[in-house]
Design goal:
Methane Monooxygenase Hydroxylase, Chain G, domain 1; 14 helices; 384 residues
Length: 384
């Protein structure tokens, strides 16, 4: 190859690498969210200023800014989240505006009275079980009290009313934009989040049921995976609650997704139980044929976690779960053969208990995964 050809080939490789890098960068950008946020901000400022001028209010610019902030707080990536944030925002602003008018009328507006008022607002919200609205209520109260300190000739109740009206307008704009531009349902978030949870559970399962010598950083890896699974499960439940706020869904009912989340938690509990037992003793009880069957089931189960995740994302089903069922049937026959030899009598009661718990939960995980596949195949959703 000549020097010129080498230079041309090298240039092509550089161009290809640069193109790939730019594609990765642009792929990270949330274009739809950026457009929705930009349009919502412009609409909020326009209508906020126009509304305040129409009523000849004394703080038009503040009203426009407050309307924009209300829109940003409420506007979420999907409809259910927007509805949920709208309810929390409206309730928090209502409480904060009332507290702002009340405490400003009683205490006035100083550095110390602001601190006392915020303290009392937090206490009141906590007593009313409105903990999710505490920050917004305190922010609304602070704005009312500070603005009254700048314009004491205006009633603090007037400032409180204006803040509430501004928030309602911002909330309305956020909901309209969320519906009009690329409306995404929370059930879509649940779907892909469950797929992600399955992959993480598969990694946790592989580590817990390994019959091999564990690495030194095993405990650290296990703790990290447990934290990740717990976080994903909490988010699954949150998306489920948000999906219930959506008026209509184009995919499946929330009951279907709730069932899948329950099955995920059942699998997680079985994995946790397996973790609580000393599997090294279980491994020592197995003879070579049974050990081979157990390893086959473990490998097939790990692959099945990935297949279920792919099934949720693409709607494509593979052969892994069928192979898993066959592997479990082979294992059952091998266990029958193993028990008939009565080799368990050579071990103490604790080891035998671990033996039965290990295989019971191994089977429970497989059964839950089979149920998940059956449920996923009945769902009506658009592939990614």
């Amino acid at each position: 190859m000549t020097d010129k050809s080498q230079r041309v080939l090298f240039s092509k490789e550089i161009f290809k690498a640069q193109t790939s890098y730019l594609q990765q960068i642009f792929g990270r950008i949330e274009w739809k969210i950026a457009v929705k946020a930009g349009i919502a901000a412009s609409m909020s400022l326009f209508f906020g200023l126009g509304f305040s001028k129409l009523l000849s209010r004394p703080d038009s610019l503040v009203s426009g800014a407050w309307c924009v902030m209300s829109t940003f707080v409420v506007l979420q990536a999907h409809l259910g989240g927007t509805y949920r944030a709208a309810g929390i925002r409206a309730l928090g602003v209502l409480v904060g505006s009332l507290m702002g008018g009340l405490f400003t009328s009683i205490f006035g507006s100083t550095v110390f009275t602001l601190g006392i008022s915020v303290f009392l607002t937090v206490v009141i919200c906590s007593m009313l079980n409105l903990k999710q609205s505490i920050r917004i209520a305190c922010l609304s109260l602070s704005v009312v009290m500070i603005l009254w300190g700048l314009r004491p000739e205006v009633s603090p109740w007037t400032f409180g009313l204006f803040r509430f009206l501004d928030s309602c307008l911002g909330i309305l704009i956020a909901v309209v934009v969320a519906h009009a531009l690329w409306p995404t349902e929370a059930t879509q978030k649940i779907r892909f989040h469950i797929a992600k949870t399955l992959v993480t559970l598969g990694r946790l399962y592989r580590q817990v049921v390994s019959l091999k010598v564990l690495p030194e950083n095993h405990q650290k890896q296990y703790s990290r995976l447990v934290r990740e699974v717990n976080k994903l499960q909490r988010e699954n439940r949150q998306y489920l609650e948000e999906s219930k706020l959506e008026l209509l869904t184009k995919t499946s009912s929330t009951e279907d997704w709730a069932l899948l989340i329950d099955q995920l938690e059942n699998i997680y509990e079985s994995i946790a139980i397996l973790r609580n037992f000393n599997q090294s003793n279980v491994a020592s009880m197995l003879d070579e044929p049974l050990n081979e069957k157990v390893s086959g089931v473990i490998d097939a189960t790990v692959l099945s976690f990935q297949e279920l995740s792919r099934l949720l994302e693409t709607g494509e089903s593979g052969e892994t779960l069928r192979e898993l069922r066959a592997a479990v049937e082979d294992l059952s026959e091998e266990l029958h053969r193993f028990r008939s030899t009565r080799r368990t009598r050579k071990f103490n009661f604790r080891d035998v208990e671990n033996y039965f718990v290990f295989f019971y939960n191994l089977r429970s995980i497989v059964e839950e995964m089979v149920k998940m596949e059956e449920k996923i195949l009945t769902l009506n959703f658009e592939p990614r």
